[in-house]
Amino acid sequence: MATADRIYADPSALLKLYRHEPESRAVAAWRGTIKGPLPVTHHGRVELTNGIALAAHRGLINERACEAALAALDDDFEQGRYLLAEIPWRAVLRRAADLSREHSRNLGTRTLDVLHVASALELGSQIFVTFDHRQQSLARATGLKIPAPTR
User: Fold this and answer.
1) What are the CA-CA distances from residue 109 to residues 9, 50, 99, 117, 148 (Å)?
2) 96: which of 21, 44, 61, 128 is 20 to 30 A away, CA to CA?
3) Measured between alpha carbons, how far is 73 from 82 in angstroms, rounded to an integer?
């Protein structure tokens, strides 16, 4: 069983716990195998909140489902299923710029994806959870491992 403190989960992967998506069942099963609170950065929490709100705006979920998902997200933080992780922003931004220079022209990674990988590295993570193939390629290039449910 993996421990959560070595895992960085991209918010778009965690969002599948709050919205019904094809990979939701796999993410829920994977999360059940992880012991301890998953670290989530402040910008990750914003991305989760915005992802839920955007689903309502786009008509993917109704207002009631939106409020329930936001309440479930807040509850996960309050109950300690997530740990709000502080990151050294200057170091993350420096590393993200280096990763962009080295990899983005070949991998086509987006800025936010690069920032998440840089955040994971600065937090000392060993495992990176994402369903985004370009982000997976970047994470692998930096030595991060990708767990089975997101390969």
Assistant:
1) 17, 21, 10, 10, 21
2) 21
3) 9
> How large is the average pLDDT for residues 123-144?
96
pLDDT band at residue 140 under the 50/70/90 scheme: very high
Mention the CATH class of domain 4-146. Answer: alpha beta
- Complete DSSP assignment for 31-94: HTT-BSPEEEEHHHHHHHHHHHHHHHHTTSS-HHHHHHHHHHHHHHHHTTSEEEE---HHHHHH
> Residues 8, 135: contact at Cβ < 8 Å?
no
Q: What is the residue extent of each domain of the chain?
A: 4-146
pLDDT digits (tens, 9 = 90+) for 41-67: 999 999 999 999 999 999 999 999 999
